Amino acid sequence: KPDPHSVLKVEQVGRHFQGLIALEKVDFELKPGMILGLIGPNGAGKSTLINCISGVVPASSGRVLIDGVDVTSVPGYKVPFIGLGRTYQNIRLFRNLTVLENVAVAAYAVARRQDDPYALAMGYLQEVGLAELHAHLAGNLSYGAQRRLEIARALALQPRYLLLDEPAAGMNPVETDELMQLLNYIRHEYGLGLLVVEHDLKLIMRLCDQVVVLNKGQQIAMGTPAEIQADPHVIEAYIGR
Ligand code: ADP
Ligand code: MG
After folding, report:
1. Which residue from 21, 39, 48 has its CB within 8 A of the most atoms of ligand 1, so it is best to mutate?
2. HSE (CB half, 13 Å, CA atoms) of 211?
3. Could you tell me if the ipTM is greater than 0.95?
4. pLDDT category of residue 90 using cuts at 50, 70 and 90
C-alpha cells in the first residue's frame, strides 16, 4: 500500500490554447485512499486538467507535485513510473490484442525480472471482473467492459494515484453501480488516491469524499458533496448554461 503521508499537489495550474484560457489557478490536493470528484459543464477544462496532471499536455503555469517531485518536469512517457495512472475519456486500448495482452503490456513495463507479466495481468483482470474474457479481443468487449479493462491496465502500472476521465460514460445503470463498487474497492484495498471526472452528479455525490468544481477553466468551488450541492456558484454554473 502507498505511504499514507503521500500527497499529489495540484498547485495553481493553468493552461491556455492560444487565446483561450482552458484552465486558471486550479489548486487542490489528493491523498491515498481518497476519492476526489472533478465536475463541471462541458468545456470546463476537466480533461485538460487530467492531461496537465498526467503530462500529456504541458501546463502553461503552476506545478503538479507527487511527494515533492514535480510531475510537470518529467517527460510524459515516464509519468507512469512516478506513480500516476490514468484512463481516457475516449477509450484507448489495443483493440486487436486480447484482453489479457492489453494488461500484460502494462504489467511488463513495471515488472521485475522474476515476475510473470501474464500472471500479474490475470490478477488485475480478476480484480475488475474480466478474467473470464481474457482471451477475447479488446475491441470486441462491450463499452462498459472496455472501460473496466482500461482500469485494469492502469492498475497494472502499480500507481499511487489514478485519474479517471468519465469512467461511467456509456455505461448502463447496472454497469455504473459495479463501477462504483470497483472504485471503492480500489480505494480501500490498494489505498490509491482517485481523481474521478464524471457527468453523473448522483454518482459523484455518492462516491466522493471531496469535489472540485470547474467552470470555464476556473475552480469555482471545492468541498464535500453536501457543501458543493448547496453552493450557489455551483448551482448557477449548472443552471445558468
Ligand atoms: P471538459 O473535459 O471539461 O469538457 P476540455 O478540457 O476538454 O473540457 O476543454 C476545455 C476547453 O479547452 C474547451 O474550450 C476546449 O475546446 C479547449 N481545448 C481543449 N483541448 C484543446 C486543444 N488541444 N487545442 C485547443 N483547444 C483545446
Ligand atoms: Mg472532457
Report:
1. 48
2. 27
3. yes
4. confident
Kind of pairing, strands 35-39 and 210-215? parallel
Pair 47, 148 in one domain:
no
Q: Measuring from atom 14 of ligand 1, which residue has the nearest CA?
A: 43
In a domain, 88, yes or no: no
CA of 6 to the centre of ligand 1 (A): 30
Instruction: Reduce the DSSP state of residue 199 to 3 states and report it.
Output: coil
Question: Which residue reads 502507498 in cell numbers?
Answer: 2
| Exposed / middle / buried, residue 137 (Cβ in 10 Å: 0-12, 13-18, 19+) | middle
Please identify, among 110, 131, 156, the residue that sits at the C-terminal boundary of a domain: 156
Whether 220 and 205 share a structural domain: yes
107 shares its domain with 11:
no
